[in-house]
Amino acid sequence: MTTKYLSGVGLGLRREMIDELLPDIPSSVDFWEVAPENWIPLGGKFQKNLQHFTKMNNFVAHGLSLSIGSPDPLDINFVKEVKTFLDQHEILYYSEHLSYCSGNGHMYDLMPIPFTEEAVKYVVQRVKQVQDILERPLVLENVSYYAAPGQEMSEQEFTLSVLQESGCLMLLDVNNIYVNSINHNYDAEAFLEAMPSNKIVYGHIAGHYDETDTLKVDTHGADVIEPVWKLLEKAYQVHGVFPTLLERDFNIPPINELLLEVDKIKQIQQKFCTKKLKQYSA
After folding, report:
1. Any bridge partners for residue 212, and if so which?
2. Has residue 105 got a pLDDT over 70?
3. Which DSSP string corresponds to 182-201?
4. How large is the C-alpha radius of gyration of the chain?
5. Separation of alpha carbons 132 and 129, rounded Å
6. What is d(CA 202, CA 245) in angstroms, rounded to the nearest whole number?
7. Is the Cβ–Cβ distance between 48 and 84 less than 8 Å?
8. pTM value > 0.90
9. What number of other Cβ atoms are within 10 A of residue 118's Cβ?
10. In degrees, to the nearest 5, what angle opens at C-alpha 169 toward C-alphas 275 and 274?
11. Looking at residue 1, what is its pLDDT?
12. How many Cβ atoms from other residues are within 10 Å of residue 233's Cβ?
């Protein structure tokens, strides 16, 4: 596998963005994130363009349907397809959501895993199984959630237990911490500080929708707001400057507008450049 480095600021790559980005790929984007599910079944022009991207740039893969906490059996064939995709494009890091999206069928949404000791053990076993197949560490993202069925421990305790017991790594989503802190009335900075610095591979930042003053919906469809920018600064203060990706999944503006927020992440990273910039071999 070719040695690459994950650092700086990233942006998600969607199929509809390809024509706009090629051949002049923005140099201000240090790495790109791609969902394997959107590319695995494709060939022809799409596959050729993606290979062009991945040869020239640093990439991470961010999955949508692993469903690590599902009551359904783990989809072994799918995990093997993901490994083939990662190997083909020389991508080391594959991240997924600490949630599930299937149960007697696909639910097309991220559902909350019960915060219980039993669920910790169940998820840890499945994470280890995935890592054995991928021959890579799985990177799990702290997710937004709107209900906590059967809760026996806090989100923080649950997240830390899975990270510690499975040996997996972490994708730190700053916006999700902010959204959850409002919706579930906890201290965002305290949650942030409790996360293990040595597990954080990279981060996400995004916009959300204000349903009410006390209900925020994680949409990735708007600009990042000031309190979330401030929380990103806090994250860098606590954990060092980690690679950070701007998420935008709909209401996607032209690339030049997206790059304004990319540049803002860079400016914040430079503000904390006295702390060592994390780099991860990929």
Report:
1. 215
2. no
3. HHTT--HHHHHHHS-GGGEE
4. 18
5. 5
6. 8
7. no
8. yes
9. 10
10. 5
11. 42
12. 15
